Every structure is written in structure tokens, then in C-alpha cells.
Amino acid sequence: MPPVSAADPRELAKFQATAADWWDPGGPLAPLHRLNPVRIAFVRDAAIAGRAVSPGKPLRGLAVLDVGCGGGLLCEPLARLGARVTGIDLVPEALAVARRHAEAQGLAIDYRCESVDEAAARGERFDLVVASEVVEHVPDQAGFTVRLAELTAEAGVVCLSTLNRTPRSYVEAILAAEGLLGWLPRGTHDWRRFVRPSELAAWLRRAGLRVDRLAGIGWNARENRFELRRDVAVNYLMSARRG
To answer: What is the pLDDT of residues 66-75, one digit of tens each?
Structure first.
């Protein structure tokens, strides 16, 4: 198939502008810091389902690819869980931040400035492929999921997190999060690129994967944290398995 990673320069510019802020929990990427615990829990549980695990290092022995890794917010927790982690991104400034932070933490993470096309062309395969808050920024979303499937080893798992295209997500993710609350810089998202779970599941199935998990993410105001829920009207996570 033709390349799917001809990145939209406008989308890359958004992340270039915030590259220095990846590890600032109070900065423009603060929502990703708040989302990280539920994202990691979902990804961990999807990856270890049906596998024998090492206590304290449940991802030990697994090769993991984080697509659109940015500054490494997911890569580092996954490495601490025992995985051999590779992170790819198209924003060199974010990768420079990721490398410096991982080195300071004593973590060996392989960061590469490359596309999913380039990664797939090398023939590498991973036990776990993660694309978190990425597909809503990709022009060819169906083709992107095909590449994720190509990068997944037999019996491997793909995990995605993204935003549903609903009236409520427009209100909460665009009007509220980017406007009223200022949780994200204005223009971070284009609601028209949000993906319904039914669309994402169909693309994954066509790519040869079996969808096995779906969970929503909601804000628990009482405990001041995000949590997994059944409601997928705004943010959600999905996993799919090969074989």
C-alpha cells in the first residue's frame, strides 16, 4: 500500500511548539500526565492477558513499540514494567527531550525519528504496539491502523487511545478542555478527525486483528483523577490482538 505517514505539517507544528514541555506536569501537556495512570493500566492488562508474568515486572521479555511517543511519557513507565521499549516520532525536538529524560532516569529506551512506514519496512515486529492520542492527528487513519497491524507480532497486541466523534466530545474536549478550562492549547484537536469506536474496530478487523477490549475514560472530580469507565462517548481505549 502507499505510504500512510505523509504527516500533516500543521499537526507536527502543534507538537513542535510544546516539545520542551513534555515533562512539565503543570504545563500545556498536563492532561497527558493525568491520563497516564489509566492508559498504562489498560495497556499493561491488555498485554499480559493469557501470559505468565514476572512479579513486579509484568512486561518483562516483551518488545514494545510506542508510535508517536513524543517526550516518552508512556515509554518510561512501560520500560519500568520490564519491557524492551522502542519509541518513534516525527518531531525531533520531542525525541531529544525523551532521550535526555530517559538517560537521566537510567532507562535504556530506543528512540527513533521515523514513521510507521519506515518501521514496518524494516520487518521488525513487536509483542505490543501502542498508539496513544495519535490516530486523531493522522490524515490516513485507516492506513495507519494497517501499519500498526503489520508491526505486530503473532499473538501480539495493539493498543490505541483516542477521542470519539460525538456531540459530547465536541463540548468536553474542544469547547471545555481547550476553551473554558484551558487544559490544552487551543487548536490541539480537530473534532472532524475524532474516530468512533465502530470505525476504529472495523479498520483493525480489516487489518487482520481481533478487537478484544474497549474502555472509556472519565474524570472523577471527587478524587481529582481520570478513571476507566464503560462510557466511551469522549475518551476511550481499544485493544486488538493478532491471532
So the answer is: 999 999 999 9
